Amino acid sequence: MSDASKVIPFTRFRWEGIELRAYKAEEEASFRDVTRQNILGEGPGEEPLSYVTRYFEIQPGGWSTLERHRHPHCVFIIRGTGEVVLGEVVHPIAPFDCVYVAPGSVHQFRATGEKPLGFLCVVDRERDQPEPVGRTGL
Length: 138
Fold this sequence. Notes:
The protein is 0% helix and 48% strand. It contains no helices and 13 strands. The strands form 4 sheets. Strands 3-4-5-12-7-10 form a 6-stranded antiparallel β-sheet, with no helix packed on it. A 3-stranded antiparallel β-sheet has the order 9-8-11, with no helix packed on it. The N and C termini lie far apart (50 Å). The chain is mostly beta strands. The chain has a single domain (15-125), classed as Jelly Rolls.
């Protein structure tokens, strides 16, 4: 049995050796100025994890897709300020706020401040695909 334990160094809201990816396919115009890094849960030796930890960053004035799905999200805001749509309610969010997105809940994250909105998002490794809902950017 090999030890796959590791430390992934962090510098300026990026994790060393972790690919910076587009949030979704560019053809989907349902979001603006969002990137992601899949930090833990998909790398070599991480197969025992039942979850994936991802970092999303939304540039000022940007937003994620307005969507819903059957899997829950656990979200920790670590940078910037913004809003999260949960159902029909818009909540302000700031560093160290924690957001629970329940299964089936319509949700969207928006960067409303002058700096990027960054958050860690933990989801099940095996999960359903998101279902876009209504208009973008509301």
